[in-house]
Amino acid sequence: MRSNRMKFLLAAAFSVFFSIFSTFAIAQNNGHEQVAEGPQPVHESETEETKGVDAGGILMGHILDAHEYHFADINGHPVTLPLPVILYSPQKGFSFFMSSKLEHGHTVYNGYQIIDNKIVAVKEAGVADESIQVYDLSITRNVAQMLVSMIILIWLFISIANSYKKRGIHSAPKGMQNALEPVITFIRDEVGKVNLGHKYEKYMPYLLTVFFFILINALMGLLPGSANVTGNIAFTLVLGVISLLVIIFSTNTHFWGHIFWPPGVPFLVKLILIPVELLGVFIKPAALIIRLFANMVGGHMIITCLLLMIFIFASINTFAGIGFSPVSIAFTVFIYLIELLVAFIQAFIFTNLTAVFIGQAFEGEHHDDEHQADLGVQHPNPVIV
Questions:
Q1: What sign does the dihedral 252-256-261-264 (CA atoms) show?
Q2: What is the pLDDT of residues 62-88, one digit of tens each?
Q3: CA-closest candidate to residue 339, choices 300, 365, 367
Q4: 3-class DSSP state for residue 52?
Q5: Euclidean distance between CA atoms 226 and 224, whole angstroms
Q6: Do residues 319 and 355 touch, judged by C-beta distance below 8 A?
Q7: How far is it, in rounded angstroms, from Cα 214 to Cα 239?
Q8: pLDDT tens, 82-113?
Q9: Positive or negative CA dihedral for 340, 345, 350, 351?
Q10: Which one, 221, 236, 357, 363, has least CB within 10 Å?
Q11: CB 69: neighbour CB atoms within 10 A?
């Protein structure tokens, strides 16, 4: 009973913390939008001086979220796929339109404009209107890509389930079932059973969903013009928070007893160890969040930088750009192939560590040895990874 109360108390405290954090982040963004100014007219002399490659702008534009998919520029005209813009302002109400109406920040539409990759309310002079607060609820490219990934994930799982219903479990798998069954079996045997013991079946739906959702988004992020969803800290943050809640609601009295009163430790050491152990509950999912974010965004930055080197050398000398092109392309292809491997590795690591932390949450329980012997599994490893 005390364990259940502690679970709900920590979950509520964590929710309040993130609510306050989100409010503070929104307030900071709104403040930034209010002081932003609209684009100033560009003179011909300034255009010639800034003729070089804006490597930083291109790099951040590839990593950050946007209100459209940008594929290429042909004769100075961007080739894009606009996305729906949904805005709410307490002063102006709801506004619905496509992002193409804003023309990449060069035009004011319905009193809104894109400034510094954010949609803000502006005055007639193109200056941000400080008196109007804007809440952006748009379908950005990250959101759109996650929706596509979700559709693909549901389609895969339903197709495999229908194949099992149609052919049964004793007939040889075919098609999509044959391709994904080894992966599912690997996650079950090497992640679920090893770390969760006889409780693995309870958590397999979550572990498989996390693995394939990260993998699909990571692979889609390698397509030209797509969004780097797994390299977005908001995406990894949500996955980490969900994993934390699963871990907390999987704990037992033995787990919290070791945290709030470690056995076999002197009293003065307990005063130091208790807050450290309590922080460890939140540090574990934080490590998952940062690890996935850093690895995925790092690979995309390296690929983009290698390609930008061609244009940087070409801006210095045309022959230098042509000469460096084979080297840049060769390294880009090499890193791209590594990123394909990293997509599978990071999906596996996030899933495996989540299973490890869940297994640690209910360690110390008295398991049925005969039942575990039938399954051929061992007790979860208590070592923190």
A1: positive
A2: 778 888 888 877 877 888 889 999 999
A3: 300
A4: coil
A5: 6
A6: no
A7: 9
A8: 999 999 999 889 999 998 888 877 888 888 88
A9: positive
A10: 363
A11: 17
Among residues 175, 154, 141, the alpha carbon closest in space to that of 70 is found at 141
Q: Which amino acid makes up residue 166?
A: K
Tally the residues of the chain: 385
55, 308 contact by CB (below 8 A)? yes
Rounded to whole angstroms, the Cα distance separating 192 from 362 reads 14
CB-CB contact of 64 with 76 (8 Å):
no
Q: For the residues 207-213, what does the mean pLDDT come to?
A: 95
Per-residue tokens: 122: 């502006």
Question: Residue 139: what pLDDT?
Answer: 92
DSSP per-residue letters across 286-351: HHHHHHHHHHHHHHHHHHHHHHHHHHHHHHH-HHHHHHHHHHHHHHHHHHHHHHHHHHHHHHHHHH
DSSP codes joined into one string, 160-213 = HHHHHHHH-SSSPP-HHHHHHHHHHHHHIIIIIIHHHGGGHHHHHHHHHHHHHH
Contacts of 163 (CB under 8 A, 6+ apart): 173, 174, 175, 176, 177
> Amino acid identity, residue 108?
V
Helix, strand and coil percent figures for the chain, each rounded to 5: 65, 10, 25
